[in-house]
Amino acid sequence: MTRILFVCHGNICRSVGAQYIFQDLINKEGLAEQFFVDSAATSTEEIGNPIYPPMRKALVKMGVPVGSHTARQLHKADYGKYGLIIGMDEENGYYMKRILGEDPEGKVHYLMEYTDTPDKKIADPWYTREFSLCAGQIEKGCRGLLEYLRDRDSFSG
Fold first, then answer.
1. Which residues are part of the catalytic machinery?
2. SS3 of residue 22 by DSSP
3. 3-class SS at 139?
C-alpha cells in the first residue's frame, strides 16, 4: 500500500484539497485499496478546524467529494508512516524539514514536481484568494503524481 501525506501551512486549503482530489482520482480508477491518503499542517494555527469554505466550494464545483476534515499538525513520526510526504511551496518545505529532520529516504517532495512545470509551487489561496486556480493546480499535480506512481509501481487502473 502506498501511503501519501499532503502538507501545507494550515491543513485547511491546499493539503486537504490535494487529499480529496487524489482520493477522488484513485476512487474513480478503482485503486483506493492500494493507497492511504491523508493531509497535515506545518503550523498549529488551524488545528481542529474544517476545510476552509472557499476551498470546499472550489472542490465541489470540480465535482470532488468533500468529507469531514479536521486540521492536524505534521509530526516527526509521520516520516516513518508515509512513503511520500508532499508539500506545496518552499515555506512548507522549510517547516517540513524542521519538523521531520533529514530526508534520508527521499520521501519529501513538492506536488508540482509531478507535472510539466516541476519548479512551480502552489501559492496559498488564503492569501491569493484564487481558490479555483489553486484547486486546478492541485488537480494537475495529483494527476501527475498518480501517473508517476502508476509508471513506478506498474499497478493497473
1. 8, 14, 124
2. helix
3. helix
Residues paired with 110 in a beta bridge: 87
Laid out side by side, the sheet with 2-8 consists of 35-41, 2-8, 84-87, 108-110
C-beta atoms surrounding 55 within 10 Å = 23
Q: Please state the pTM of the whole predicted model.
A: 0.95
**Total domains present in the chain:** 1
Q: What is the pLDDT of residues 42-91, one digit of tens each?
A: 999 999 999 999 999 999 999 999 999 999 999 999 999 999 999 999 99
Scan for cell 487524489, then name that residue: 22
Q: Which domain covers residue 85, as residue numbers?
A: 2-152
State residue 147 phi and psi, 5-degree precision: -65, -45
Residue 86 in 3-state DSSP? strand
Residue 157 located in a structural domain: no
Contact assessment for residue 29 and residue 103, using Cβ atoms and an 8 Å cutoff: no
Among 84-93, 104-113, 148-157, the minimum mean pLDDT is found in 148-157
Amino acid letter, 111: L
Cα–Cα distance measured from residue 78 to residue 122, given in angstroms and rounded to the nearest whole number = 22
- Residue 138 sits in a domain of what CATH number? 3.40.50.2300
Q: What is the dihedral of CA 52, 109, 24, 132, to 10 degrees?
A: 40
